Amino acid sequence: MYIKKIKLKNFRNYSEQEIELSENINIIYGDNAQGKTNIIEAIFLCAMGKSFRDKKEKDLIKFNESFSKISVFYKKMDREGKIEVEISDKKTFYINDIKQKKVRDVIGKINVVIFTPDDIEIMKEGPQRRRKFLDMMISPIKPKYISILSEYNKIIEQRNEYLKQINIENKERNILDIWDEQLSACSEEIYKYRKDYTDKIREKIEYTHNLIVEDKKEEIKIKYISNGDSKEKFLENLKKTRELDIKRGFTQTGIHRDDIIIYINGKQVSIFGSQGQQRTVVLTLKLCEINIVKEEIGEDPILLLDDFMSELDGKRKKRFLENIKGKQVIITCTDRIKIKNDSKVFLIEKGKIVRE
Fold first, then answer.
1. Nearest to residue 129, comparing CAs of 139, 137, 119, 138?
2. In which domain, by residue range, is 321 found?
3. Is the residue at 69 inside a domain?
């Protein structure tokens, strides 16, 4: 799988730009705030239906313009395709010129794995960041998962609102049985997806970690933490915490509190790991993701590296590059980097390609 061409119109700081990419490595370099990351963002938006940066859609539109448009032309083993998004007061997606009713219908048509400097927060921040990482890994290769997760979040919101009404207006408590039943059913399905994906990472994590570290004595393990593994268990937990939920006005137990924990030599990396270990663990997780995506869809995903190479020392950078051969890679950086593999280089200045 690879992207052949990107067209941008009124996107961020780009008025109009067309970029033809290499099937191999593409290096996009230039000073800060010139528009390098905007190209990565445009691809990610068409692949995942949303930006990995801003939540405000109006910020995606060039200043003083009323709309923005992105077109991404891609090729898979068995077909070619085009995904477009038009952004005005809302986002509208098209696949091969056919308007899509739901954003999730776009997800998975183009498979990408993104690396950014902020990925270190997967280890540094709390469980919510790691759940988001898992959900973003699963969604493109398991379309049903998006629907189940969306349904779960909707039910949680409704249940939390009713918990507040019970507390304030003394409404009937037994009505919660309806939401608890629905939540438990969704929880079981989400748990199975996450557990299966974590098991796939577990099979690969030690071998992958050893590809990029010098110290082969590091023993790395991953563990998925959940307070239930079946509909019955999730339902039991909701009943146990019901009174406290009513008192506090929100649902305290459930799949929305799950976590993944990484250990090196028996110690939790998010707490005891050095900055270098945390960064290497994130790199390991991303490389595992690449391999899992390939197993699931039969093709390599496209790698988006947004100023990521600057986060690696020389040895890790070399080992990383050795493990991404044969894939389309789009790299942004401030200084032009030399890569022996076939590559195409673009210099970006003020939202324009000034040299190719």
1. 119
2. 1-111+308-356
3. yes
